[in-house]
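Closing statement on the manganese (II) ion sub-project.
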Amino acid sequence: MPTTRRISLTQYLVEQQREHGRIPGELRLLIEVVARACKRIAIAVNKGALGDVLGSTEQSNVQGEIVKKLDLIANEVLIEANEWGGHLAAMASEEMDSIHVVPNRYPQGEYLLLFDPLDGSSNIDVNVSIGTIFSVLRKVGHARGVSEEDFLQPGRQQAAAGYCVYGPQTTLVLTLGNGVAMFTLDRETGSWVLTAQGVQVPEDTKEFAINMSNLRHWDMPVRRYIDECLQGKEGPRGKDFNMRWVASMVADVHRILTRGGIFMYPWDKREPDKPGKLRLLYEANPMAFIVEQAGGAATNGRERILDLQPRKLHERVSVVLGSRNEVERVTAYHRDAA
Ligand code: AHG
Ligand code: MN
Ligand code: MN
């Protein structure tokens, strides 16, 4: 539902705290710091060819992907912004092999922050929407110190999750486990303004998002689903489907939150030993949390993503998310095949 009153992110968080008591001070600080870091990343993104932000570095990351300059910039901005506040114990990122523990010179908090600093890296140089995805966990137990194990919690335990999309508008989407709110960056005042809350993903859709070039590598249930969509009005679904694939998960998920749809990055035969391309802890979990909070669904084709027990920090997962009825259909096709 669009809002007409101008409510800033700070006011929203304060009111959430007052009305629902769901945001401890440390979590509020964390969200505000992440949102501020996203503003800095947005500024870097916007510089484009005028700043030293396009192109690749010489490095490759733990996933074996070439690291883009903006992947590193965004990673550094997020770390620098979050280190000193006393709200975090440690951070984990797509661009870091292992966890980053808050240095001794700062107080340690009880939260853990995970992020994909720059999602949609292949779109940076071509000026197409990209984003930042983040997930917040609470350190369970009171043991001193923090280790990778502390991060291996099922997604349903997330205290908050969000993403920022750097597109024609810069939009921050947030859930604290109490529905989904959207904030648009007002560049004149530099503040995040609440522009939607109680976001709901329509249950049905006629739009799917998948990288069709991988068709020959998919498993039967995914082929069956897409094949039925492609048959349109004349096929078993009795309606024509449209296709979109931005190749930035943030942008595809944002479209789905706005007008419905289904997004899939399934397992495929190119890398048969890996469960999928996307990463569970800082891509699939936060997006699944947001989509569920908006009334949608998210599975790996078989199980609810938020119930998966992670085993490794950079674990991958097959992803099916979006409009509830379509996700349930794809999941049922996998069950039939089994
Ligand atoms: P990242 O840029 O963080 O590595 O993530 C890219 C992901 C995701 O955003 C997108 O949906 C998918 O990779 C695109 O993959 P293809 O290039 O295989 O279509
Ligand atoms: Mn990504
Ligand atoms: Mn990334």
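The radius of gyration is 19 Å. With this model delivered, the sub-project is considered complete and its resources will be redirected to Aim 3.
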